[in-house]
Structure prediction request, 224 residues.
Amino acid sequence: MKILVIEDEVKTAKFLKKGLSEGGYVIDVAADGLEGLHLAQEVDFDLVILDVMLPKLDGWQVLARLRATEQKTLVLMLTARDAVLERVRGFELGADDYLVKPFAFSELLARVRSLLRRSTSRPQEILRMADLEIDLMRHRATRAGQRLDLTSKEFLLLTLLARRAGEVLSRTLIAESVWDMNFDSDTNVVDVNVRRLRSKMDDPFPVKLIHTVRGAGYVFEAEP
Prediction:
């Protein structure tokens, strides 16, 4: 499988190319947004790893132009920007996943593999499970046709769980992805917010989608 890395930091680009090549992928690298956009439009890549802070065209512009031409290549945003609203913006523009620097390469590789397992399917603007529907472009979610009143962080949490449906996500991963924090065992922010999301998204409905995996985290899937 072919991956395009659009990254202007030379050390980071070399690190990603080396690690992903050792993982069996064919890697091309672009050092600015304009070159990256051209390659992404001209070459059939399975995945684009896209930095936000780029010369010539930034990552938002590259992503927006790709999606404006109905380019459906999977895009993993890779950036030092860690504000929740920045992540929401990325998903609204059509990003498929989002990873904040600094990151562990093992997590990046896991994200890449997870995305590429879905590469034979067209990237969705709407995620569905049971009677839940998440409209990524409009930033809204409904169950059984009822609009869910979610905060931006609750929507980001729900989107994270839904995009990685069937995977057990640890509290550490959730805390880092949604709240930009290293998980502290004395902090119950993840459990509290999952409980709040459940009260809006699961409790009023017969089919439960968020499940606790004791000692491991949470998994998003319909009850059998």
